Predict the 3D structure of the following.
Amino acid sequence: MEILRSYVEQILAPALTELGVNGDHWKAMIAPSRERTMGDLSLPCFAFAKQLGMAPNLIAEKLQSIIKTTEVISEINSTSGYLNFKISSTWLAKFILSGQIRVGDATGKYPSGKRSVLIEHTSANPNGPFHVGRARNAILGDTLVRLHRLHGNEVRAEYYVDDMGKQVAVLAWALANLSTDRVEEILADREPLNESWKDKADHERVRWYQAAQVLRNDDEIKNDIEREIAAMVHASENGDDNVLTSFENAYQPVLDGMLQTLGRLGITFDEFTRESLFVTNGDVAKVMRQLSNLEIHGIADNGAEYLDLGARGLKGKTEFYFRRGDGSSLYATRDIAYHIWKFKQCENLINILGEDHKLQSKQVSLTLTELGYSTPEVLFYSFIKLPEGKMSTRKGNVVFMDDLLEEAKAHAAQVVREIRSDYNTEQIDEIAEAVGTSAVRFNIIKVSPDKGFTFRWEEALSFDSDSAPFIMYSHTRTRSIAKKCHDLGVNVAQNNDLNLSEIPESMYELLRIIACHNDILARAVEQSRPNLFANQLLNLANYYNGFYRDCKVIKDGVVNHTFFAISEIASKLLKSGMIGLGITPLEQM
RNA sequence: GGCCCCAUAGUGUAGCUUGGAUAUCACACUGGUUUGCGGAACCAGUAACCCGUGUUCGAAUCGCGGCGGGGCCGCCA
């Protein structure tokens, strides 16, 4: 609870001086109390023991006896070497009711101009539909975009489109050379295309991609195919317009289909940047010339060039190749050109990458440093597995995001139908869509990014626990109460009608969690850990429910203005926080 | 084989940077309350620091060594 910090320091300073503690290094030691019942901020006294020749618990007790409570700090206690400070409920209520807690807006309407960041996320190869593993990137990335905006940062969300290279070439080759019948013949032993997606290009065209992958393993013809594909790749890397156009015709409908899926999850981008740009505009050639002049530069027998990053602390395989023997560039080389370009757009970069990109990302960063540029922050995430092993678009053992969203929606509709028999089909459909997509997002962001997990249908479709629907329901309840107040002719709580003489425990608890709300948001943003804020929103919803139980906003047809004002503040924080996580706030559900 | 990441109750998670309280919070589970300003609610209880070792008055936290899970080690992307 950072709002309390300066007040604690203020009363602590003279007391510590009196005891004989000099300097202000103790300020850094003040930390949130471990348990809420003890206090809000605590000072561990162990570090003073040696200097003062006193036991820590005696120091804490001594300090407690010296320090007097204030209007802000209503309780000071000492337990086993800790001095605990608890915030005054009355002061806190006044503070919060005076509107001093920033609500924020995750859609970016009210940037504070604090910081401007360019977040690149997703950037999936446009060769097939999203499966839940690939979608972790998009969901984490988009949530980070939203949380930065909620925090007040200006954000540009960017998708780097891989419009050249082998994966796209394979797709283009297949579409040009294989008939529909031929594709189905090759994939005869696999699951057929799900009828629901037969007009969605990402689902449709991935079969061409998969069929081509099968043929590339066929000993009789693979050499011919490989030669044709290599020629296309080579041409694309030299900026051949015809080939790049054929690539675009192949992948763009696929990308559109993929973006349609993301759109359903509320994920959009401000900018799409194509990899080929840096080949055609000469940036890549320029970067390669610069790299060739570096001290750590080396040349292989066939003319391929690399940097020896071992000289810069890289362990394991230290040669980082940036130019092939035939003079063409590699993916990482183009990525360096892309980063240099990104730094011209914005000085703070964040990338969201799968853990398989760790080495690559390290190589890019070391090289950028070598060239005198700064480096991006990177959020790495582990993969989502299936109980039977890892997912692979190539092999076809995946759970498609489109299928998951449909299942989640169907499940949500079933629950709503049971609970709200009076809703019509249209209402149920709208609620089910919001609940289904929100639940899917939340189940992914509540897990720490660096931990892998196994996808289970049962868990993905579970709404009854620590889930988005729980938060959504609390928010809906706040709206329902506000509507009732409105019906009673009370639209806004009257400030002069507030009564703070008696503050119930559960209201105090809600106020305390509200007071920490933006501390948690700041930490989630600074450390790129959306799961921290997901947990905060769950807590907020929980404490609101406790408040709701004990503090009746409307009793016997009369509105309690104090409770109503608190309820409305919680409602706003819930709503802005939900949008920050990509959960859809509803008026009724 | 080499390098990197992860490991806290049944599940998820905080704490680890800067060692110090009875290890946080939520869900699940068990028991209870309650017919509600929306019960998708509330209250209570059970339950965990991967193993070993070192440093220390004190280790979830720091060092070393293991086990387990994941990733990487292409002139692929």
